[in-house]
Amino acid sequence: MKKSKILPLILLLVLALALFFAYKVMIGTQESGTPSASTGDEVTMILDRISDDVRALRYTAGGETLSFTHAASSADWVLEDQPVFPLDQTTVASMASAISTIGVYRTLDTGDTGAYGFDAPACTVYVRYSDGEEHSYAIGALNSVTGNRYFKDLDTGVVYMISPALLPYFQYSLSDLFVYDTLPTDIDVSYISAVTLGASVTEDAEKIEEIYNNFLRLTPTRYADWSGTEEAKAAYGIGAAALSLSYKRAVSVTDTAGATITSRIPADYTVTFGTPDEEGRIPYCLSGSDVIYLADAAIYEAIAAVFG
């Protein structure tokens, strides 16, 4: 009886060991190489820098190459050769952070057999630091067994296995990194004293409210040109008409007793329109911005109709 009970347990143990060794063989086949001492979930750091020291960053993904620079004297990243581009600072800063701290799961000791995906990498990344140190990397194919990605140091040729979480940081197109302007949040319609469109002015409260409601529809969602050049503005006819809101803006001030009170000061906000196109869109620039946005021409027509 005891032997009959023990035998199934022995068989199960043998089966478990067989499955374990089969898995290890499959891992080795997928990697086409011998892992280094850094295996499993243990992480070995191959780069651990301070992201604030990054001065240049470039990546190529999806056929598009984007290059950014960060001057030590400035807190902002800029698109190389196009510094006026309204760049998403937070996203680019996160890229610099991601590529400055790199931990690997495995180091592959043999050369690329073609299965690593470096013939057409998912992404290549270049980074340079303030002390002149620079690195170039390629992110390759996904290993279907481990769920990790092949990662190559292009300077040394060494191939690693890394977390797949690095790649998404470098999958943004230029349009993804565009930061739209926003309409001011400090305009209270009840404090708008007058609205001007071209040579026409109204101080009528009902008309002002109708104009303001249409003004809110000008929240940017599409752009025509972000260069800010006078040539671009002329091409879109910017300056053909201007809408100006005169209002009193709320500000917090401290009185002589140290109490904080709300006061209001005169302010103006202007939207400058261009010439409507054949697709029923009208170009415009918001106050304080040179980006040429596009809106439905019907919005402008609704505003103009209030003036009669």
Short précis:
This protein has helices spanning 2-31, 89-100, 205-215, 230-235, 297-307, and strands at residues 44-48, 54-61, 64-69, 78-79, 101-104, 106-108, 123-129, 134-142, 149-153, 159-162, 192-197, 200-202, 223-225, 241-254, 260-273, 281-286, 292-296. It has 308 residues and is of the alpha+beta class.
Molecular structure report:
Mean pLDDT is 87; it is low at 18-39. Strand 8 (134-142) and strand 9 form a beta hairpin. The chain has 2 domains: 35-177, no CATH class; 189-307, Immunoglobulin-like, CATH 2.60.40. The relative contact order is 0.11. It is elongated and about 80 Å long. The strands form 3 sheets. Strands 4-3-2-7-8-9-10-6 form an 8-stranded antiparallel β-sheet, with helices on one face. A 7-stranded antiparallel β-sheet has the order 12-11-14-15-16-17-13. Strands 1-5 form a two-stranded antiparallel ribbon. It has helices at 2-31, 89-100, 205-215, 230-235, 297-307; strands at 44-48, 54-61, 64-69, 78-79, 101-104, 106-108, 123-129, 134-142, 149-153, 159-162, 192-197, 200-202, 223-225, 241-254, 260-273, 281-286, 292-296. By secondary structure, it is α+β, with helices and mostly antiparallel strands. It has 5 helices and 17 strands. It is 23% helix and 34% strand.
